[in-house]
Amino acid sequence: QVQLVQSGGGLVQPGGSLRLSCAASGFTLSNYAMSWYRQAPGKERELVAALTSDGDSTNYADSVKGRFTISRDNAKNTVYLQMNSLKPEDTAVYYCNAVWRFFRYWGQGTQVTVSS
Questions:
Q1: Whether the Cβ atoms of residue 48 and residue 68 lie closer than 8 Å to each other
Q2: Dihedral sign of CA atoms 97, 98, 100, 105 in order
């Protein structure tokens, strides 16, 4: 079965850290450009971070630059989003996304809540 399975969300205090994981099954992630999106209640889904298939180039939303890092481990067929210095405005459901040619897959989403 072709799917992306996410893990690692949860509740964290402001200033804390979380790492999200996105593991692929049924296909090889190394061919795919990967990205993380998020959607907060009442807001549109927005791009948070992106990584090219060769891993040479990254792109981040201005709101997360310097705090979030996207990375991939092709041996584990997994992509990560390391989130540091979390803020309440980072609260959202986070989704990973894989794109190659006309193939596009989404993870199931994972809730991240930043609150004291």
A1: yes
A2: negative
Q: How far apart are the first and last CA of the chain?
A: 39
* Amino acid in the structure at residue 71: S
One pLDDT digit (tens) per residue for the chain, 116 residues: 889 999 999 999 999 999 999 999 999 999 999 999 999 999 999 999 999 988 889 999 999 999 999 999 989 999 999 999 999 999 999 999 999 999 999 999 999 999 99
Tokens matching residue 43: 């807001």
Helices (H) and strands (E) in the chain, counts: 0, 11
Residue appearing with tokens 């310097």: 66
Centre a 10 Å sphere on the Cβ of residue 70 and count the other Cβ atoms it contains: 23
